[in-house]
Structures are given as structure tokens and as C-alpha cells.
Amino acid sequence: MSAVAPAGTGATAPTANGPIVPAPVFALPTLSFTVGQVATVCETLEESGDIERLARFLWSLPVAHPNIQELNQSEAVLRARAIVAFHSGHYRELYAILERHKFTKDSHGKLQAMWLEAHYQEAEKLRGRPLGPVDKYRVRKKFPLPRTIWDGEQKTHCFKERTRSLLREWYLQDPYPNPGKKRELAAATGLTPTQVGNWFKNRRQRDRAAAAKNRYVLSYVIFFHHFVVVLITNQMYNHDEFSWKSPTRYFLLENN
Length: 256
Fold this sequence. Notes:
Blueprint lengths: L11 E3 L5 E3 L12 H14 L2 H10 L7 H4 L3 H14 L2 H10 L4 H23 L5 H10 L18 H13 L5 H11 L3 H45 L9 H8 L2
Antiparallel strand pairs: 1-2
């Protein structure tokens, strides 16, 4: 009969056959999350916008999960993996997830935005400059949405009026939102934080361009007004009959 050392003591115990077998120092913890619990955690972290914690949670899931097949088909888990891949810049992994799995319509908006934004980012890196509207149109034509995240309906790439109105309201309060506000706006509008940031950036650029144009027009008006005043003054001063006339007398002379 063999003696067994208590678990956790780190001691060794002799066996009947003579060899000494080391007892485990401690029992390894096992994760016993169900697929539903994993999905709930993924959804909660996704809604909070805490991508780093979401990534750590996915990484901590055991490879040999008892329901690994079901876990790999969970939409919440797949969507979470896609989000982490997008924010990590692992676009090939993102594309593979989106192309190989069919998602419900509720997930389409967010996944479509990530698909397009990832391709935009790759195109910008390749060209070494920001993309204009025509460039983005060409990217969309070259990389159409996969049917796994698209129901076949034509999609407009302009924000809805409600979304634009909400963005404008926030812009008037703060043209430079911090990451937390961007995540809050993204949750309220259904956009990604990147899309929100790009909208604010483009709006600031348009406002600066409009302000510069207004300054130019104003300076031109002032210059033109000054030029007219000088011209009239010179004409009044150089008149044949008078060396100087008041504006009223000059007007009467010129119109008689």
C-alpha cells in the first residue's frame, strides 16, 4: 500500500514499486464558464468599450473548452474576436472571421463599419496619404461587403440625419472629444470610435477652411472699400473747377 502525501505540501511519497513520485504543489484552476456565460462577458466588455480587457478575457479562455465547437459558433464570441482583431490591427484575422461566419442583422452595422475601416486603413498605409471620398468609393468597390455581414440591400455611406444631428450637438460642446467621449458617442450612434473621431476631424477641417475663406473675403471687401474711397477722393480733389469739394457738392456736380 502506498503512502500519499497531502496535496499542496510539495512532499514526495514512496510507492509499492519503489519509485518516488512528486506530489503536485497545487491544484491547477480550471475555468468552468458555460458558453452562455462567456457570451455574456464578451457582450458586457464590448458594450463598455474596454477592448484591452476584452482581449485578455478571450486570451484566458481554455483551448480545450468542453464545448469548444459551440463556443466557436457563438456570435457574441465571434464578434468580440473580430473587434479585438480590428483594434489590434490584425486585419487578416478580422477578414477571416467576417467571411467564414454568418452573422445576424443586429451585428451587421458594426461589422460592416470595421470591414470598411480596416480596408481604408490598409489603403491609406499603402498610399501614404489620407483617403478622399473618391478613394474610399474605389476601396468599397474593390472590397465589397461579404454576404455574411450584409443582407444584399444597398447601403448609403452617409450618416443618418439623427446621427449627424447628435454629432453636431456634441461638436458644439466639445470639438476635441477624448477617447471616453468617443466611445460614448459610438455607442449612442451605432458607429465605431474611429468613425466618430474621423467625423470630428473632418468637421474641424471644414470649419477651419470656412473661417479662412471668410477672412479672405472680408479682407478683400475692406481692400475694395479702401480702394473706392481713395479713387473718389482723388477724383474730387482733381476736379477742374474746385481744388476740393465736399462729397455732397461733388455728387451734385457730377449729376448735373
